[in-house]
Amino acid sequence: MRTVRVGAVGFVVVALIGVACAQDKKPAVITITVPERGYKETVVKVDGDEVIGTGATRTFTTPALEAGKEYTFKIEALIEPNNYTKITRPREIKVKAGDAAKIDLTTEDKKLDKIVVRWVPTPVDIVDEMAKLAKIGKDDVIFDPGCGDAVMLIRPVKELGAKKGIGIDIDPKMVAEAKTKAKAEGVADKVVITEGDILNEKDMAGAAEATVVLVYIGDDLGARMSPVLQKLLKPGARVVSHRFKLGDWKPDRTVTVKGADGDDYVLHLWTVKEKEKK
Ligand SMILES: C[S@@+](CC[C@H](N)C(=O)[O-])C[C@H]1O[C@@H](n2cnc3c(N)ncnc32)[C@H](O)[C@@H]1O
């Protein structure tokens, strides 16, 4: 067997090449801007790992990168503007060795961002106030996008004799609970609940039949849903929202009512006009 010996000179050359390559490798620094603290500090992840830090900017230093090559990093901000809304905002950034890159995650991307609003029920007496504001009567069809346990449908149908209630909820557990409650209250034949996403126009088909919308969904989802509602609702339909506005819609009336629990509740009313339909 022949052995190839690398002499001292060869060893030095190999070592120098190694050092040169290592010197060519450099990290990139990514400055990430995120929404300021809401209910909780925004969490930032790069390729799944949390970037430790607080406040509006976080700095991530990549591992050493080979010169001339482009690398993609997945950045994700987990934003909690309040205690019931979670927004996941994913983005990607391409960097090269030595870059000082910036990425802004403060603005919404309707296609990429995911918004989850958890169930928080509207108290029964506030549902009654909303029904009063909408002047619900026996000919009305009520629609609740994000209906939870369907209190906003069961109550007007049972207590005010409204013709029908239509609700959708993204959470199958809430859909099951709403159906059980409608049955227990004896209005299952008039309250139709389905699983659906308020951001999906097909799932929102009930809005086209509605004369009244009662809603409690949060600013972020409300803003995203409002163009779909605007498109589907008939002129003359009344919309009453518990607390939150619907994007840039300007309410016809805003009232504050005292709840049985002693808290103040803000309610907004809109009536769909012909010119608002797009
Ligand atoms: C604040 S709760 C309001 C429940 C009910 N309308 C009330 O006022 O008692 C919001 C509900 O919307 C549902 N929801 C959240 N995101 C949704 C989406 N994209 N599509 C449909 N429902 C959604 C939640 O599961 C929750 O039940």
Automatic annotation (TrEMBL):
The keyword S-adenosyl-L-methionine applies. One of its GO terms (molecular function) is protein-lysine N-methyltransferase activity. Residues 142-239 form the Methyltransferase domain. GO terms for biological process: methylation. InterPro entries: CHP03000_planctomycetes, FAM173A/B, Methyltransf_25, SAM-dependent_MTases_sf. PROSITE patterns: PROKAR_LIPOPROTEIN. The keyword S-adenosyl-L-methionine applies. Residues 1-22 form the signal peptide. CDD domains: AdoMet_MTases. Keywords: Methyltransferase, S-adenosyl-L-methionine, Signal, Transferase. It comes from the Bacteria. It holds the Pfam family Methyltransf_25. This is Methyltransferase domain-containing protein. It comes from Gemmata massiliana.
